[in-house]
């Protein structure tokens, strides 16, 4: 399997942003699959997805400003949601992603719902990974705890052990946890392992109030597209009651529950892959 291509482009303020791309079939006309990671994740999370569908349709995974190979900003305010959304629109234009099937994990799913308001014509279908229109404050607290600090681990084994202690269950063995740690932390010039994101991202996650964040109007903006929801059934961010309401509002939405898994599924689980296979097979 050939490695993915590294794509670079400039945001409108000149910041250099990055994406990974797995080409589709030559001359193919199927819509590309655009993958958006979580708030402190990178395109590396979609390596398995890219390899799975490469050659059948084009797959592109974005990296937000301050994440992975994308340039870090001088001002932490650059990481606000509205700016990330603007970067996404710039990137879609630069990479000729005019109409896509979108797969968004957590924060990526929030951006997908936002696109439904700002640019509905660019979405042909949306798959959301463990995110919905109600974000529980308890789940957000766990996210903030991890993304807002740099432990500077002495070894990848230490990083893996930290993630196992800190994160919700993700149905992983030791090798899986090590792989996850390698996609989360990178070895720096000092020989220690640091986050693959700018930890000032947490400053952009302003806590407006102690309650849950409600985004139901954004969810309603996806009424025109087919939907698939991946739900880690142990998730503290996406609860059963929110999933039930989503189903009531969109009875045609496909839901794939993942027992014993918290926020967020890695999308390597057999149930998740089978559901994504079915969903993509129905898309042009």
Automatic annotation (TrEMBL):
<protein>
    <submittedName>
        <fullName>Alpha/beta hydrolase</fullName>
    </submittedName>
</protein>
<dbReference type="InterPro" id="IPR029058">
    <property type="entry name" value="AB_hydrolase_fold"/>
</dbReference>
<keyword id="KW-0378">Hydrolase</keyword>
<feature type="domain" description="AB hydrolase-1">
    <location>
        <begin position="33"/>
        <end position="275"/>
    </location>
</feature>
<dbReference type="GO" id="GO:0016787">
    <property type="term" value="F:hydrolase activity"/>
</dbReference>
<dbReference type="InterPro" id="IPR050228">
    <property type="entry name" value="Carboxylesterase_BioH"/>
</dbReference>
<dbReference type="InterPro" id="IPR000073">
    <property type="entry name" value="AB_hydrolase_1"/>
</dbReference>
<dbReference type="Pfam" id="PF12697">
    <property type="entry name" value="Abhydrolase_6"/>
</dbReference>
């Amino acid at each position: 399997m050939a490695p993915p291509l590294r794509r670079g482009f400039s945001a409108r303020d000149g910041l250099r942003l990055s994406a990974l791309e797995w080409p589709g079939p030559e001359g193919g006309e199927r819509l590309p699959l655009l993958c958006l990671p979580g708030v402190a994740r990178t395109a590396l999370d979609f390596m398995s997805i890219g390899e799975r569908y490469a050659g059948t349709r084009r797959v592109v995974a974005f990296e937000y400003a301050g994440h992975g190979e994308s340039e870090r900003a001088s001002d932490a305010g650059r990481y606000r949601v509205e700016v990330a959304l603007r970067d996404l629109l710039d990137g879609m234009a630069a990479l000729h992603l005019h109409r896509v099937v979108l797969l968004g994990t957590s924060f990526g799913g929030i951006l997908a719902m936002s696109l439904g308001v700002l640019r509905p014509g660019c979405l042909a279908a949306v798959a959301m990974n463990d995110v919905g229109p109600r974000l529980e404050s308890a789940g957000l607290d766990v996210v903030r705890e991890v993304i807002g600090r740099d432990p500077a681990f002495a070894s990848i084994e230490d990083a893996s052990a930290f993630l196992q202690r800190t994160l919700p269950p993700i149905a992983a063995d030791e090798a899986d946890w090590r792989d996850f740690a390698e996609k989360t932390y990178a070895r720096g010039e000092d020989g220690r392992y640091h986050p693959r994101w700018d930890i000032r991202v947490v400053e952009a996650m302003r806590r407006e109030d102690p309650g849950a964040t409600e985004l139901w109007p954004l969810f309603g903006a996806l009424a025109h597209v087919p939907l698939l929801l991946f739900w880690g059934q142990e998730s503290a961010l996406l609860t059963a009651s929110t999933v039930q309401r989503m189903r009531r509002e969109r009875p045609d939405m496909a839901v794939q529950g993942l027992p014993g898994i918290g926020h967020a599924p890695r999308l390597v689980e057999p149930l998740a892959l089978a559901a994504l296979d079915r969903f993509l097979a129905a898309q042009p």
